[in-house]
Specification:
Number of helices: 4
Radius of gyration: 15 Å
Oligomer: single chain
Strand content: 25-35%
CATH architecture: 2-Layer Sandwich
Order of helices and strands: HHEEEHEEEH
Mean pLDDT: 86
Distance between the termini: 36 Å
CATH topology: Double Stranded RNA Binding Domain
């Protein structure tokens, strides 16, 4: 409960209006902390006339791994960096972005379907930063893949 409250306070600092959907997402995010692969760090550089670049650090069972990649957009660059770390041949089959409420300070929800060895895995992410939400959705799906032997 303390973790949820701390995350609520952080979100309230970012947004003026906190809605029921925001709180539901915060409660779901606490379960994400129990995942084997977690997003530890994400930095993205993008803009007009700049090649999008992303640096990612993942925590995999307590061990930290870093990668940097470019892409045709900031989400692509971030996902490519994650793929460098996880070493799995996965493809994104579906990528949906949705705002929960109105406004530029809103939480964005991302749903992804990832294909791995002819199986589909679903991932979900939510964050005020849509790139972070996208990476979290990708990692949510990746965490559902069978552990490599």
């Amino acid at each position: 409960m303390d973790e949820i409250y701390d995350e609520f306070v952080k979100l309230a600092d970012k947004k003026k209006d906190i809605r029921d959907d925001d709180i539901a997402l915060l409660v779901g995010d606490v379960n994400r902390k129990e995942r084997r692969i977690k997003l530890d760090y994400l930095q993205v550089v993008t803009g007009k006339n700049l090649k999008p670049m992303a640096s990612v650090r993942l925590d995999i069972s307590g061990e930290k791994f870093d990668a940097t990649s470019d892409g045709n957009g900031p989400v692509d660059a971030a996902i490519k960096a994650v793929k460098q770390i996880i070493h799995r041949q996965v493809s994104i089959e579906e990528f949906l972005v949705q705002a929960i409420t109105r406004g530029s300070d809103d939480i964005g929800k991302v749903h992804m379907q990832v294909e791995y060895e002819d199986n589909i895995f679903h991932g979900f992410g939510a964050n005020t930063d849509i790139i972070t939400a996208s990476v979290e959705a990708f990692l949510d799906a990746i965490n559902k893949l069978p552990i490599a032997k």
